[in-house]
Design a protein that fits this description.
By secondary structure, this protein is an alpha/beta fold. It has helices at about 25-40, 45-60, 70-75, 80-85, 95-105, 120-130, 150-160, 175-185; strands at about 10-15, 110-115, 135-140, 170, 190, 210. About 35% of the residues are buried. Its EC number is 3.1.3.5. Pfam families: Hydrolase (PF00702).
Amino acid sequence: MPSLPWSDIDTVLLDMDGTLLDLHFDNHFWLEHLPRRYAELHGMSLAMAQLELTPLFERNAGKLQWYCLDFWSAELKLSVRELKLETAHLIALRPDAGTFLAAIRQAGKRVVMITNAHRDSLSLKLERVELAPYFERLISSHDYGFPKESPQFWDALRADLRFDPARSLFIDDTLPILRSARDFGVAHLLAVKEPDSRKGPKDTAEFAAVGDYRDLIAGL
């Protein structure tokens, strides 16, 4: 991973799930806990539940409704909020993230969270992990009506924040989102080497990836 030209960076834009928080919570919830509880609540086998849910997930992936708890609660006829509370003990900050956040704040960088997470999901996580004090703003894509995968999200973000993409760093664990940011003109981009601590490193394609955020602090 190359060192960052911190003198050329004023704004740091950070994703939440898989970037600052361990993605294990979300992967476990959507791939294991939700299908199991859906099967129980609807009186079917787990295999049948997965057969019903998989095409639904695939059809909505990358769209704003994919991240919307209200959408899934209505679609699946259950309370996703309540089900998330059942596994909330798995919500965890990456061990290196707190050190990094404190360092970039102390260095005087503008630090903004931009997440596709629904506001209810964001609130649930902020109740369990103290993230808010590190950030100037906590922005959900639902505030703008477009997911981060969409060019319209980035237009809305610039109109809202008045930031300079050419002097910004953006870190995210999702490749289509990083590509959308690159197309918009964000100059400094990093993927995340291991978003889910239980799954090992992932292929980050054309993007350099951060493995330990403490490695980024050099040169601040």
